[in-house]
Write a structure and sequence with these properties.
Layout: H1 2-17, E1 20-31, E2 35-44, E3 47-54, E4 59-66, E5 70-78, H2 88-91, E6 92-97, E7 101-116, H3 119-150, H4 154-181, H5 188-196, H6 202-209, H7 214-218, H8 220-234, E8 245-247, E9 253-255, E10 263-269, H9 274-290, E11 295-301, H10 308-317, E12 323-325, H11 334-338, E13 346-350, E14 356-359, H12 364-373
Parallel strand pairs: 1-7, 10-11, 11-12
Antiparallel strand pairs: 1-4, 2-3, 2-5, 5-6, 8-9, 10-13, 13-14
């Protein structure tokens, strides 16, 4: 009996943590252009892997190994006299891999495909179909944004951002509804990750995470979500900001507690981050307006090793005249990891007692919030 129990436990272990073999048998006979190669990108051991196969007689077979069911991206290359740029809509598709053999029949274009043999991918396709209307809205907004940015229409961009936020809220309503309808779905954890986003609200996500099957919680992604939730619980609004110390531009240690007594914005950014650099003028404006009224900023840079000169140049060029710290460890910056930062720009507004009172204030939102606090 003991041996049977051990064997059963080992089977569960292999299913959760073991290597899953996948195979995709594809047919591109329906595509007018001549597809000569097919490329696939998927994650294994925490890194993106890329593989390619040659198409023979309008057929291809891709095989590989994954640690757990996950999304992969497949694209076609064509035999053409004149090379053309990749068209994301036509030449690239996403597919949900699991440890099984799938068939892929491409028609009209490479991305127009029917995949059979995977319940996970069936659920993934169904979810994506429900998200298509939002994708259309976002594409239209992106076109509008480019036009507004070209004309430097800040007011128009601000209004557009409100529309983006509205779309995101409606997307999250769909994700939550889909998750609650079937928390045992083979892509339930994937749906929950989409709902949680980069800035996780533990109060919202915790009750949903509890509904996942044990196997999903014990998967690699499930354990990663557990770690993110642990951080989110201690960095939520109303929580004391976790203490840290990091060195400034001159190599001197600066602790968070040493800056207590004012409203403080912990601003995560980097010299290489385009959106951060675009947001910096708004942060500078708020700093100059409220610095004499009890407001300060602590910049935490996610610049890369051996890139201190780029960090310092960006501080100078953007006129960021407040305290800056960094360990120059890129995404492994100790403070960023401690605060669960997965995307930048990101910020936390701390009150004089050291409590987190707001997060991710952008543009006029930061000015408005400070105006309320520092009348």
């Amino acid at each position: 009996m003991k041996k049977v129990l051990i064997a059963a436990l080992m089977l569960v272990y292999v299913q959760i943590y073991g290597q899953l073999k996948f195979t995709i048998n594809g047919n591109v006979a329906g595509i007018k252009d001549t597809v000569d190669k097919v490329f696939i990108n998927y994650r294994f051991n925490g890194d993106w892997q890329q593989d390619s196969v040659v198409v023979t007689d309008k057929k291809y077979t891709i095989s590989g190994t994954i640690e757990e069911p996950s999304v992969a991206y497949i694209r076609a290359s064509y035999k053409r006299a004149v090379p053309q740029r990749i068209n994301q809509k036509r030449d690239v598709l996403s597919i949900y891999l699991e440890g099984t053999t799938m068939t892929a029949a491409h028609t009209d274009s490479f991305s127009n495909v029917t995949v059979k043999g995977s319940k996970s991918n069936d659920a993934y396709v169904e979810l994506n179909n429900k998200m298509k209307p939002f994708n259309v809205e976002i594409e239209q907004l992106n076109n509008q944004y480019r036009a507004l940015a070209a004309n430097k229409d800040e007011a128009g961009i601000a209004k557009l951002e409100e529309t983006y936020n509205d779309i995101e809220k409606r997307q999250n309503e769909v994700y939550k509804t889909e998750f609650l309808a079937n928390p045992g779905s083979p892509i339930a954890l994937y749906i929950l990750e989409r709902f949680a986003g980069y800035d996780i609200n533990a109060d919202e996500v915790d009750p949903l995470f509890a509904k996942l099957p044990a196997a999903a919680k014990e998967s690699k992604s499930g354990k990663a979500m557990t770690e993110k939730l642990n951080v989110a619980r201690i960095t939520g609004i109303g929580k004391p900001a976790p203490e840290f110390t990091q060195t400034d531009t001159l190599g001197n240690p600066v602790s968070l507690s040493s800056l207590r007594g004012k409203y403080l914005l912990i601003d995560f950014w980097a010299s290489w981050c385009g959106p951060c650099r675009k947001e910096n003028p708004n942060v500078v404006k708020a700093f100059n307006k409220y610095k004499e009224k009890g407001f300060s900023i602590l910049g935490v840079s996610l610049d890369q090793p051996n890139a201190k000169d780029k960090w310092l140049k960006a501080i100078h060029d953007d006129q960021l005249t407040w305290t800056h710290v960094s360990d120059l460890q890129y995404w492994k910056n100790a403070v960023a990891v401690q605060y669960g930062v997965q995307a930048i720009p990101q910020n936390f507004l701390i009150d004089p007692a050291g409590k987190i009172i707001a997060k991710n204030l952008r543009g006029e939102e930061l000015d408005k919030k400070l105006g309320e606090l520092l009348k």
